[in-house]
């Protein structure tokens, strides 16, 4: 990397620009002993979900099947049923011995997600699922059909410990980490729905070959705070022999900037797409907007993102929600461009995310003219910048807004 010029991180003085400061609306951010927003990295101890085939390596699966008194090759058959035919129903598995089938499936493919509710929109092209986990925790995933691809936005934690003031998921703190299999099961269940023709926008009557092609870890939770389980889930996703056989490029792991975990991810040699939710190029604002910035500053997060590109050759995405008069100033576009260019060319692109307008809120969407100016400045500085499609907004399923509401809780209680 080239030596970087000294770049100021403070707002220009006397510019007269309006600066809206981040604050929560209608809820209180939990604080730590020093008065800073509380950050929860460790998962509270709760009953663990049952161990499932997708939590195990292929070797561990063989060992577990043998423990259940059957030859090891049955593990491959079970994996095929689950990952290729999206089924956990013993009745579908006629190639397994009838007398031990139920017990084998109960031991290897225990139920993990109970569907509580489904909302469909965009003419049926988008489906939001609300799932109940074995201990009653609620999580969501959003399935979206786009031309040429089907994307699933998955959750990696129940709740989230990162306490971002704009985010509904963070309000209640971290309930617990999800297991690898709970993450993977969201995909398998989505594949079932696609195969049965329930996702809109299909081109033909035969959906049996269609699958989720892209994964974004932008549902509930901070994926890198649940590192080992998220990585096990990713390994299962890309495993061509005994897993889902997806392309690593189609998997986007996003983070608010857990720097040591970004560096670990870079060393994994699984070239997933990496996205950094930056939302501000200056520490002054980002300390308030993304509380984890008090641990790892903008420059550290950007250095780690650049290191990810160096290790994988994969261009990094910078996510930037454009919030009216808070982070959408032209000088911030320039500062962001300077900071990215200072780390080299061609390694990054920026995805500004337009919010839904919420007049009267500090979290209002940027004016269209401010959005265009922000994008123009970045593009003029040589940073490829494209405004991201925020499908799913109309069912409150957009990233960072996934939250189980009280209505969801009541509904879950009624169906449990
Ligand atoms: S924005 Fe992401 S990291 Fe922040 S609280 Fe919400 S889910 Fe967690």
From TrEMBL:
Binding site for S-adenosyl-L-methionine: 221-222, 254, 277-279, 356
Protein name per its UniProtKB record: Probable dual-specificity RNA methyltransferase RlmN
Ranges annotated as biased composition (Polar residues): 7-17
Cofactor(s) this protein requires: [4Fe-4S] cluster
One term of GO molecular function: 4 iron, 4 sulfur cluster binding
The EC number(s) this enzyme carries: 2.1.1.192
Origin species: Microbacterium oryzae
Role description: Specifically methylates position 2 of adenine 2503 in 23S rRNA and position 2 of adenine 37 in tRNAs.
Domain called Radical SAM core: residue spans: 146-394
Keywords, in A-Z order: 4Fe-4S, Cytoplasm, Disulfide bond, Iron, Iron-sulfur, Metal-binding, Methyltransferase, rRNA processing, S-adenosyl-L-methionine, Transferase, tRNA processing
Cofactor note: Binds 1 [4Fe-4S] cluster. The cluster is coordinated with 3 cysteines and an exchangeable S-adenosyl-L-methionine.
Active site (catalytic residues): 140 (proton acceptor), 399 (s-methylcysteine intermediate)
Phylogenetic lineage: Bacteria, Bacillati, Actinomycetota, Actinomycetes, Micrococcales
Record's keyword annotation contains Transport: no
Region annotated Disordered, chain positions: 1-50
Catalytic activity: adenosine(37) in tRNA + 2 reduced [2Fe-2S]-[ferredoxin] + 2 S-adenosyl-L-methionine = 2-methyladenosine(37) in tRNA + 5'-deoxyadenosine + L-methionine + 2 oxidized [2Fe-2S]-[ferredoxin] + S-adenosyl-L-homocysteine; adenosine(2503) in 23S rRNA + 2 reduced [2Fe-2S]-[ferredoxin] + 2 S-adenosyl-L-methionine = 2-methyladenosine(2503) in 23S rRNA + 5'-deoxyadenosine + L-methionine + 2 oxidized [2Fe-2S]-[ferredoxin] + S-adenosyl-L-homocysteine
GO cellular component: cytoplasm
Protein family membership: Belongs to the radical SAM superfamily. RlmN family.
